[in-house]
Design brief:
Elements (H helix, E strand, L loop, with lengths): L1 H13 L3 H14 L2 H14 L1 H29 L1
């Protein structure tokens, strides 16, 4: 949970810069555990959806595609 708190602080400090916000959000997804990501999603929707929805959607789309690709290729390799 300490990493989640740290990432929230980082995002709070860069929310005004959409490029930097997106970059930091990618990092969050790389470092956080699944449960923390779920909590992060709720927090993002509550606090930054109005100002950064396009960036949030773009990052999570990429994240989901990456997860699906990884799952798919693991199935093929077996």
């Amino acid at each position: 949970m300490q990493m989640l708190a740290h990432q929230k602080k980082v995002l709070e400090n860069v929310y005004y810069d959409k490029v930097l916000f997106k970059k930091e959000l990618y990092k969050c997804l790389a470092w956080l555990e699944k449960e923390e990501i779920e909590e992060l999603v709720e927090w993002l929707n509550k606090n930054y959806w109005d100002s950064n929805s396009k960036e949030i959607i773009a990052v999570f789309r990429f994240y989901m595609i990456k997860k699906v690709d990884t799952f798919y290729y693991q199935k093929i390799e077996k």
